[in-house]
DNA sequence: CAACACCATAGATAATCATCTATGACTATA
DNA sequence: TATAGTCATAGATGATTATCTATGGTGTTG
């Protein structure tokens, strides 16, 4: 029975050395090039020969030339080494964040603004693919609990020792009414005046609802009539159809204002900010880091949010320190 | 600066183990499958991780799943391992002689008959390629001196301690004349009768010439008129054109007898045999061995040369003993 | 044929590897 | 919340590797 090659003992080092020997045709030359001594190379060659189980070089006019098997082995070496090299380059690229994948979990409302950050990033980093998960606050909290995503965007970060949060973008909540709403032109409009209106609200799990509720509570106001609708978009359409007023992120309205308008209510817009939320303990893919850097760079110019830029910078520093 | 993978430390063994871990999703399972203990596998994985410089697996619902980098590494492993495997198969095939290369050096006359051996062999072993070198005796002797070929075919093997020779096929030398030659029908035709004829002869380096000269010498005959022509084919044509008689291998005539015929000269055909000639010390490629085996198998049936078969068998035995 | 270049082998050594057993930590499920 | 299963780590050991220096053999070339 013929012995087959002892693949398990094969190392890339041996192949490297061998490939060089074939190229130079000389052990001594290879020894010099690889900063080894000649006997070392000689021995490596011998070992490789034993692994293969067949002579791989022979002497010919003072040079070492590969035998037929040696030729095949040389090709194999080239092939394997270059493949390993490609992988190595991939690794490097991955580490630079120019390649790879990360996932980001968005609270519903944030989906109106995040594309403006993700778009240019993807443009600049076509090899990175991003998974965007979208859900209401509660759904995102669940994902967060289960460590499902690399980055989250919340307006109210969950409280947790493990959490790093950076408020990067303001998210003003405004009251909106239909296009020709009579309240639109009232000076010094106050909530008292609107108490009798019907309010179309997001479900209790949502951040927008939460913020508004808190404000109502602190202002000691109770609404007469409310209706719950789970989607910002549906709410906007309902408002446009005169079904009531609503509190929405200004971004939702700004995005496509057809049929609704912001009302100049005193005390509004409610201030609120989106936060990048990351678990301290989680090791972020380099691509995610790169995304955050990208965001940091564009916040001041494209979004006029210098504070956001500072916060994201701090977040990045914290991440760097964490590892 | 990002560290690149430490390729030189990479082993195929590590890749094997890793690939299995990815497949099973469990260290313990892999340990059992590969007849190792679980800590061993654990450590291998750790080492691989260090070589790559990046986490390659993570726990997920009690299973081990590759990280993104791990995925890429897994693909790499598969790829590299399967390539090594292909090479291993090649090796096996090479060792069986079903693949590879060998060269055979033929004395001119032998080219008329060797195709009948090589043809079926190549048919049966399409992956083997054979280099056939052809020359007259002297040229072949030179090649032999320089160890240029794996197998030689001579009618008179060079004398050398290093030589193994097996007479495998008879090579009868006959006298031929033109188609309607008056000698063709003479009973008991003797050389004496032909002394006055012009003989067309191969050059002195050739085996045919050598044999004929020796015969003439031992018979005490000297030819009146001779002419030297270097090619068997040219001689055959010259004979057909009534330029004289000639001594040729019967195979040359049998091959395409147009215009010439064998003369029934007493003492002819001269007996002579082709020999496979091999240097003891040379390590033959398995394909060459396989060729010899093939020849051995076909000599008895296709050529009615049982003695040749025996001789080749002995040659093969000697070669096997030699290594 | 003397000198030189080149390769092979021997002998030595520190490092690393491949393994094992034993044990501790974590996790999912009964 | 026990229990079983799974992974990680520690510690030990023999085998193998990667290297070196020194030396001897072989073949090439003035």
Automatic annotation (TrEMBL), chains A, B:
InterPro entries: LysR_HTH_N (IPR000847), LysR_subst-bd (IPR005119), WH-like_DNA-bd_sf (IPR036388), WH_DNA-bd_sf (IPR036390)
Keyword Glycoprotein: no
Domain spans labelled HTH lysR-type: 10-67
Keywords: DNA-binding, Transcription, Transcription regulation
One family name in Pfam for this protein: HTH_1
MF (Gene Ontology): DNA-binding transcription factor activity; transcription cis-regulatory region binding
Transmembrane helix among keywords: no
PANTHER family linked to this entry: HTH-TYPE TRANSCRIPTIONAL ACTIVATOR CMPR, HTH-TYPE TRANSCRIPTIONAL REGULATOR
Family: Belongs to the LysR transcriptional regulatory family.
Protein name (record): HTH-type transcriptional activator CmpR
Organism per entry: Vreelandella boliviensis LC1
